[in-house]
Write a structure and sequence with these properties.
By secondary structure, the protein is of the alpha+beta class. Among the domains are: about 30-125, no CATH class; about 165-240, no CATH class. About 25% of the residues lie in helices and about 20% in strands. The chain is built from 5 helices and 11 strands; from the N terminus they run E-E-H-H-E-E-E-E-H-H-E-E-E-E-E-H. Strands 10-9-8-7-11 form a 5-stranded antiparallel beta sheet. Strands 3-4-5-6 form a 4-stranded mixed beta sheet. It has a two-stranded antiparallel ribbon with strand order 1-2. The protein is flat. The two termini are about 15 Å apart.
């Protein structure tokens, strides 16, 4: 199937890595990156994990063939092809991709969804309220007291937060890798990584404030990313979910009316 080059507009084969007319890379060329969802179900999981508003508000329908105007979507048709589409404001449908490569199709909608999130964040400005003079009462005093107590509790929790950033560490001559809530140590004899015993207490002398003193980007032997431990924990790793795309402004602040519904994509 042929698709349109985003840069020069030429129709080219979907299987290529770059446009033969202008040389621009195709948007699906990097679709195999491990941090990206590759299936429709994984994209659904990504959507939920980022706390996005309901699909009726964002107008991104994952796994559904919606016919009404103003909608992005992806689904599998009756012959098993993956279809990525955009319904314009007039109801006209523009097919972005149709074919057997599910990862390719998922990446097309994934990239468009991330771009829409960035646009929504850029367009969102918090509402400004003009405070009206009010008589102080017991309720306001209680509210202030509760706020102070919660602030103090939060500050104490931050002080005692001993979590570590993910990555490689060198400590007392030993190489370690931290992922999620687990620590792994490197064994030079087997050239492999193993989960450490949490009761060993090797990190008792380190807290979050000086953890970076032991972090390193250099290590010998096998990359931890090549182990089964890394594969097993990648979906629970915060970096997998790309937290920059989290939506924490509430459903009311997402305005799909500002989306360009007249373009093909």
């Amino acid at each position: 199937m042929k698709i349109k080059c985003n840069f020069c507009g030429s129709m080219i084969e979907e299987t290529g890595e770059s446009c033969p007319h202008c040389g621009a890379p195709l948007s699906g060329a990097n679709r195999t990156a491990s941090e990206q969802p590759k299936t429709i179900d994984e994209l659904k999981e990504w959507y939920v994990a980022h706390h996005l508003p309901p699909e009726e508000i964002t107008r991104f329908f994952i796994g559904k063939n919606i016919s009404e105007p103003k909608a992005f979507g992806i689904y599998k048709n009756e012959v098993g092809d993956v279809v990525v589409y955009k319904n314009k404001s007039t109801g006209e449908r523009a097919i972005r991709y149709q074919g057997a490569d599910e990862a390719y199709g998922v990446n097309e909608l994934y990239q468009r969804l991330k771009a829409e999130i960035a646009d929504q964040k850029g367009n969102h400005t918090p509402k400004t309220y003009v405070a009206q003079p009010q008589k102080k009462n017991n309720k306001s005093r209680i509210g202030c007291l509760v706020f102070v107590i919660l602030f103090v509790i939060g500050s104490i929790m931050a002080i005692f937060d001993t979590s570590f950033p993910n990555g490689y560490y060198n400590y007392q001559g030993q190489q370690y890798y931290h992922q999620g809530k687990e620590w792994y140590s490197y064994d030079a004899e087997t050239n492999d990584w193993y989960e450490t015993d949490p009761s060993s207490g090797i990190w008792d002398g380190i807290d979050k404030t000086n953890a970076n003193d032991y972090r390193t980007y250099e290590h010998s032997g096998k990359d931890f990313e090549e182990t089964s431990w890394y594969d097993a924990g990648s979906h629970s790793d915060d970096s997998y979910w790309d937290s920059d795309s989290d939506w924490d402004s509430g459903s009311d602040s997402w305005d799909s009316g500002g989306t360009d519904w007249d373009s093909d994509w």
